Fold this sequence. Notes:
The protein is an alpha/beta fold.
Amino acid sequence: MYIPRNIDSALLEWKDDAFRKPMLLRGARQTGKTTAVQNFSKQFPSFVELNFEKDKRLFGIFEDDLHVSRIIRQIEGILRKRVEPGKTLLFLDEIQLCPRAISALRYFYEDLPELHVIATGSLLEFAFKRLKDFGVGRIRNTFLYPFSFTEFAEAVGEGILIEHMREATFSKPLSELDHSLLLELLKTYVIVGGMPAAVNAYAKTHSYLAVARMHADIMTSLKADFGKYDDKVPVERIRNAFASVVAQTGGKFIYTNSDLELSYKQAKEATDLLELSKLIVKVKSCHANGIPLGGDINPKSNKFILLDTGLYLHECGLDIADLIALPPVEFINNDKLAELLVGLELLKSADAFTDRSLFYWHREAANSTAEVDYLVQHNGAVLPIEVKAGRRGAMKSLHMLMAEKGIRLGLRTSQENLRIMDNIRIIPHYMIGEWKRLLADARPSIPPYI
């Protein structure tokens, strides 16, 4: 049974877009790209799927010229299905195996824009490296991540609780009962994570043992891909870089912090490959002097986070039985885990048609080290977000950044209920994906930026 995803609404929006382009649905392996497209195909009278992994005959279609009329005729001949613009969804799956098919996408836009075309595949970013031009400006890039907290909650039958959450504002926070229930649900979500196979396993069985086994299967599969990244980079080097990312989550990444005694260049090469696979996400150090955040970074100071909380806990070797026994307040009372959760939720709450980046602020001085976990853009200005694992904690770094840069509004996300503390807005961890709505609802009370 298909579990609804936020990407479904983005696909529907694309379907009816008057300026529609062929879609390239991108994301890490096993995040549900193919399943989402197959479910979306129900919106069309006909569905034609080309899977380059299953059917080797398909490669020959793209070996000759890239005239769309010829390509369509050959697809129809091989699959014995009509391809009708306006009626057919043409799906090119595992397209990374056929770089010529990636190049052909631009010509679908130029020569047959009435036809709905979606392509996706595993390790797409590596295929892009081998192409000089894959249709920039003529392709709609769309990005899919693992299940968000709200998607997970809907999947396990907690839709009413999510409705209550979406009705809450700073002036009308959640009841303490709902707040407690949501913290308990968040604990479950962090353990299960958002990988579709793990979510499905939990939704069907409510068995953490089934989830643990699924995490093991997923990681075995993902690590088996390391050998596909780059023939020139040893698999063991990539494995070591991955383990280093897990160990250094929540802190500035030290490339040479490795048991294999790799050079900076070797370690960075392996880490860059992991980032291309989208198995890890870079959090860029930003000076926070203004917008855009990406134009003001310190390339020598980065952090990395893993794609999923459930996989992170698995790689840390933590026993799920021990985690289940902890009350929510103690379970998420871990700075690394809370920071990972919030970063991923920020990515998942962003527009699906934009490849978002994560930023943080870090300052090292002789007598003063300060760090604010995340920076986002809001109303044309920098909005700092400080992550607190528990319900208390000073905000020295947040106040320091705001005073130094003249920022009038900041966010703190913690296990507290919604509330306002002077020019700081406090949002519970499970609602960080709602930050834009919450600030919009509170706009009359928010002081202007300097």
